[in-house]
Design a protein that fits this description.
Among the domains are: 96 residues, Immunoglobulins (Immunoglobulin-like, Sandwich); 95 residues, Immunoglobulin-like, CATH 2.60.40.1180. It is 24% helix and 25% strand. It contains 15 helices and 33 strands. The strands form 9 sheets. It has an 8-stranded parallel β-barrel with strand order 12-13-16-19-20-21-24-25. The protein has a 6-stranded antiparallel beta sheet with strand order 26-27-28-33-30-31. Helix 8 packs antiparallel against helix 9.
Length: 629
């Protein structure tokens, strides 16, 4: 189809893209436009005044109408073929949920105060993943605002990443069952609430990334197929019908997706998008939708004068996702590195079920830090086939790394966090590996103080049969897993309530100590040049597989740091050469300062360039710095 239709206008000194579809307020009223090639006739219904207005066909399946006397706040439906009353596929707001009327929103009405915000480069990001509904007792965007000072000033993160907020059925959901991709969820605070949150973040120097789902739509309230061929049966996804991106009439579907990305960047000022499970986006057209989306978003970002980051999630280890177009790639900025997580988790927990059977050695973690993908073309025992492609040519900033995230916690039967699975010493190792890596770190809400509440899978579908089917599916999924437990019932409101984090824990006991440890790691990452500069050639990883020890060396100009990590439950002795000069201890996780067992470690030592002998205490991390001057 080529690029989607753009309309750029000057707004307050900036070029602004505008959404053409949906309900668009104008000077004399509202213009409505919808793609509905599946209907021979289409009308606009305004329930408040019991009014029905025929819409004019425009060709290629589009219908439109201009209605005087209407304005923001008007609620409306489309009437397909005079029979089926349906909300707008491009609704900006669904105040009564997925089955209720759409509401007209004026995108220019919000009083933005962030025009001086210049965005955030990927290299500056320390991400913090948040589920809006469980981050606070209120579960809303405004309630989240009250904790921004904690996140930015106290903890030190630089950007939040919101799990999907597009309108989903009911009040409880992870967000991946959204059916109105343009409508911020009503119970979270709707459009005004989300804009207010982003505005507040930018005023406090925090970036905002939004998780978006383009591989499927949720099962309840999904009326898109009645409007047109949005879906295809040529491909299958684990979550529902695949989106039609390369079949007949797919041009308009592609526009629906790309416009959505541009919409969040312009109307909501987001700093980036996390694209969910792109392995479920099937497109065999000459120009892949991901490359087209990147081109459109980056072109708009250039006009807006601020960076916009695109991050993918993919379990294929397919380097094309993040390779530049010059190398045949789609050119996305980065992707979540599951291999890093699996390597670290297997070392910390000893788990070997499911995909963890492919991991368990420090050599796996070393490769993840050094190259990105651990499986880069070799045989995967779990998959029983070769997996991945080489990624060693890519910058470390192409990979988002984490010890926990919503998937890796919530897709366990009981939703256990790492704090419920490993010792306090191991939690400190996890934090150090993530935050001292040369990659882009991501924290999952609450991990920084060892949140003990699980993060369960939860839903609130209004269709009992659908909810029952989801529960059965969860039971079947975990019944085939070795040593699996009965999963939490996602229909039970208690699963949602148990998943709420308790930020007040960060002031208590070992939670307070762990938080201070995270704060220290983040400060060191920002302040020490060898840790702050994420250069591809300035990292070296050494391993002692039989001892379960890894050493990460980072350098910048004359400065170098070395981080020793012992994953074993007993002390280990190693020898390794280090650059000549004076080395100063920066951090010792075994210190009594961090509730450790205590370990006699020199505050500084002088190396002549030959081998240095180390005795590492169990489950410990040591960080030394050689300023080189």
């Amino acid at each position: 189809m080529g690029n989607p239709t753009f309309e750029l206008k000057m707004e307050k000194g900036r070029e602004q893209w505008t959404l053409e579809l949906g309900a668009c307020p104008e000077k004399e009223g509202v213009r409505f436009k919808v793609w509905a090639p599946g209907s021979s006739q289409l009308s606009l219904r305004i329930p408040r005044v019991h009014r029905e207005i025929p819409m004019d066909p425009e060709g290629q399946g589009y219908f439109s109408a201009r209605v005087a006397g209407l304005g923001p706040g008007t609620r409306y439906y489309y009437l397909l073929d005079g029979k089926r009353r349906r909300p707008d596929p491009v609704s900006r707001f669904q105040p009564r949920g997925v089955h209720g009327p759409s509401e007209v929103i004026d995108p220019s009405a919000y009083p933005w105060e962030d025009l001086s915000w210049k965005g955030l480069a990927l290299e500056e990001m320390i991400l913090y993943e948040i589920h809006t509904g469980t981050f606070t007792p209120q579960g809303t965007f405004p309630a989240l605002i009250t904790h921004l000072d904690y996140l930015r000033q106290e903890l030190g993160i630089t950007a939040i990443e919101l799990m999907p907020v597009a309108q989903f059925p009911g009040r409880r959901n992870w967000g991946y069952d959204g059916t109105y991709l343009y409508a911020p969820h009503n119970s979270y605070g709707g459009p005004f609430g989300l804009k207010t949150l982003i505005n507040a973040c930018h005023q406090k120097g925090l970036g905002v990334l939004l998780d978006v789902v383009y591989n499927h739509l949720g099962p309840e309230g999904n009326y898109l197929a009645e409007f047109g061929p949005y879906f295809t049966d040529r491909y299958k996804t684990p979550w529902g019908a695949a989106v039609n991106l390369d079949g007949p009439d797919s041009d308009q579907v592609r526009r629906f997706i790309i416009d959505n990305a541009l919409y969040w960047v312009t109307e909501y000022h987001v700093d980036g998008l996390r694209l969910d499970a792109v392995q479920g986006i099937f497109d065999f057209s000459p120009r892949h939708i991901l490359e087209e989306l990147r081109s459109a978003v980056k072109g708009l970002a250039e006009k807006l004068g601020r960076p916009v980051t695109l991050i993918a999630e993919s379990d294929l280890n397919d380097v094309r996702v993040i390779n530049p177009p010059s190398r045949g790639g789609y050119g996305l900025d980065a992707q979540w590195n599951d291999d890093f997580h699996h390597s670290l988790h297997a070392l910390l927990t000893g788990e070997r079920q499911e995909y963890y059977q492919d991991f368990g050695s420090v050599t796996h973690l070393a490769k993840a830090i050094r190259e990105g993908f651990v499986y880069s073309g070799q045989f995967s025992p779990y998959r029983r086939r070769r997996q991945g492609s080489p990624s060693d040519h890519l910058r470390p900033t192409k990979f988002i790394v984490f010890s926990q995230n919503h998937d890796q916690v919530g897709n366990r039967a009981k939703g256990e966090r790492l704090s419920s699975l490993v010792s306090f010493e191991a939690l400190k190792l996890a934090a150090g590996v993530v935050l001292l890596s040369p990659n882009i770190p991501l924290l999952f809400m609450g991990e920084e103080y060892g949140e003990e509440a699980p993060f369960c899978y939860f839903i609130s579908f209004s269709d009992p049969a659908l909810a029952e089917a989801v529960q059965r599916g969860r039971q079947e999924e975990f019944s085939i897993s070795a040593g699996a437990h009965e999963p939490v019932d996602p229909r039970d409101k208690a699963a949602f309530l148990r998943s709420r984090i308790r930020l007040d824990l960060r002031r208590q006991g070992v939670h307070k100590i762990l938080l201070e440890y995270y704060q220290t790691l983040i400060r060191l990452r920002k302040e020490i040049p060898a840790l702050a500069h994420l250069n591809p050639g300035d990292r070296e990883v050494r391993t002692w597989p039989e001892k379960g020890v890894i050493a990460l060396l980072r350098s910048y100009q004359e400065e170098q740091t070395v981080c020793f990590i012992n994953f074993q439950e007993k002390s280990q002795e190693i020898r390794t050469p280090l650059r000549s000069g004076v080395w100063h201890m920066v951090l010792n996780s075994s210190s009594t300062r961090w509730q450790g067992p205590g370990h006699s470690t020199p505050e500084s030592f002088t190396s002549d360039g030959s081998e240095v002998f180390w005795e590492l205490s169990p489950r410990s991390l040591l960080l030394y710095r050689n300023p080189g001057v």
